Structure formats: structure tokens, C-alpha cells
Amino acid sequence: MQQQTKKWGAALLLGGLPLLWVLYLLWQPLDWQAEQSMQVPAMGPKLSFGEHAYWYLWINIGTIFFPFLLSFDKKVHFYKKWRFLLPGLLMVGGFFLAWDVFFTQMGVWDFNPRYFTYSFLGLPLGEWLFFITVPYACVFIHECLLAYIPKDVLAPIERPLSWLLVFGFYAIGFLGLWMSYTAWTFLLAGSFLLWQLLFVPNHYRSRFYLAYLISIFPFLLVNGILTGGFNQEPVVLYNNSQQLQNLLGFRCGSIPWDDFIYGFLLLFLNVAFFEYFKKKGAKLSDSFKNKD
């Protein structure tokens, strides 16, 4: 019991106090540089057909289209596991939407009205859908890898890799403590991974790492479009003073470096909830079988 208390104390101290500092920073006025938020490097040819108000909606449809169709694959049967996916989508999506609304109001980022029509709480419809389509696609990749690559290839290095990520996330989070997006994203990711290492055995962590590595390829395309790498203007506008670009002086193409860890946390939380409810469903099913 005492050991568990110490673990919880360490996790709350390392993750909680810096996040309170970031919240304090966010209540200070931020300098929004509208002109600079539009200036991003190109990542390829411009998609002239995407210059309209429904573009963000199209991006979401394109993100989920093939994962949804392939959900009925006979080996994966992902459609049978939707009931395990939905609770996590709602809980994680709710948290990220609240984060999104808050950061938009504080001037950490904003959305280009050129690429959407309807909005709610300051977020375009496409942004609300983003927290369904992107996690759905990633959890689908996670399940496909379980079905088609049964060997857990990253299991031998999972422990050192996880600790390396925790230290790396915390180091960058503390280094950029005055940059709201960087500090909040990296410290949250580090805290969640630390909690995982202290309290959750590696039933799926190394499997998620592989799914995340593979999901980076479609992520570069989708996020490249959202950040203006393939359009005349970005869909999502960033305050450069609040992200790693302020420290490094450049992005990954048009994509802020922070987005990679934002995506890591978003997808990891969804996979964690999915695996939790899947395991809980399996136990419930076994108990009914034993009764019979």
C-alpha cells in the first residue's frame, strides 16, 4: 500500500505541478501573430480542389473511409469491437475537445474560416469529427497489426524505450515550460506514460508503439494538409511563440513538432481505453460461459 502511494505521489508531483504552471501561463495575454501563422513551408504540390469551405469535412471523410470499409475484413472483424472503442472515443474526445476550446480561446491556436462553415464553441465541425476519425483509424491499425503480425516485435525493448520516452517528454516539457503547447503536450504525454509504467503491465504498450510508428505515414499527409503544407493557407493556425518552432526555428515541413506528441497522447489514450474495455468484455463473456 505504501509503495503504491509513493508511486502515485511521484506521478502527481512530476506531472501535476508543471501543468499547473502552464495553466497559470495561459491566463496571461498571448501575442497572436496572425500574419506569421499563415506562413508555413510547402510539403508538396498545392491541392487546388481543397480550396473551399467543406475541405476540413472532406479531410475527415478521407481519414476514416478506408479504415471503415476494411473494418469488415474477415480476419480483423473490427466492426465487432466497436462497442469497446466507443467509450474511449467519448471520454478521450471530451478531454481533448475541452483542451481544444481552451487553447483556442487563449490564442495558442485557431482555425481558418476559409475551410469550414459550421462551428460550435469556437471549433469547426471538422475539428469535432477529427477526434473520432483519427483515433478510429489508429485503433484500426492497432487491431490489424494484432491480427496480421501476432509476434510482439518491440516487446524486448519496450521497457527501456518507455523510460527513454518518459525522460525525453519531461526534458522537452521542462525545457519549453514557457511555451504552452509544448509544455502541456509533452508533460501530459510524459505523465500518462509514467503512470502506465508504474501501474500497467505491458499487455499492449509495445503493440501501440508499432501502430503509432505506422500511423505516422498517414499522419504526415493528413496533418500536412491541415497545417497548410498542401493548400494555399493552413486549416489550423498556430501561435508560433507557443510551440517548439519558437525554440528550434523550424517545423517538420508545415507540421509543428508538438503535433507528433499531441497525436501520440491522443492515440495512446484511445488504445488504452479500447484495450481496457476489450479485456473487461472478455472477462464478462467468460463469466457467462462459466455460469452456463
Description:
With 292 residues, this protein is mainly α. The chain has one domain (12-291). The protein has 10 helices and 4 strands. Strands 1-4 form a two-stranded antiparallel ribbon. Strands 2-3 form a two-stranded antiparallel ribbon. The longest helix has 34 residues, at 258-291. The mean pLDDT is 88. Pathway: Carotenoid biosynthesis. InterPro entries: Lycopene_cyclase_dom. One of its GO terms (molecular function) is intramolecular lyase activity. Keywords: Carotenoid biosynthesis, Isomerase, Membrane, Transmembrane, Transmembrane helix. It is found in: Membrane.
Which keywords apply here?
292 residues; mainly alpha; two-stranded antiparallel sheet; 4 strands; carotenoid biosynthesis; isomerase
TL;DR of this structure?
The two termini are 37 Å apart.
Estimate what percentage of residues fall within beta strands: under 5%
* CA-atom Rg in angstroms: 20 Å
Q: Overall pLDDT, averaged? A: 88
| DSSP helical segment count | 10
Poorly predicted regions are none
CA(first)-CA(last) distance: 37 Å
Tell me the count of domains: 1
Q: Choose one word for the global shape.
A: globular
Structural class: mainly alpha
Q: Specify the helix fraction band.
A: 55-70%
| Number of E-state strands | 4
Biggest sheet descriptor:
2 strands, antiparallel
Main-sheet strand order equals 1-4
Write the H/E string, N to C: HHHHEEEHHHHEHH
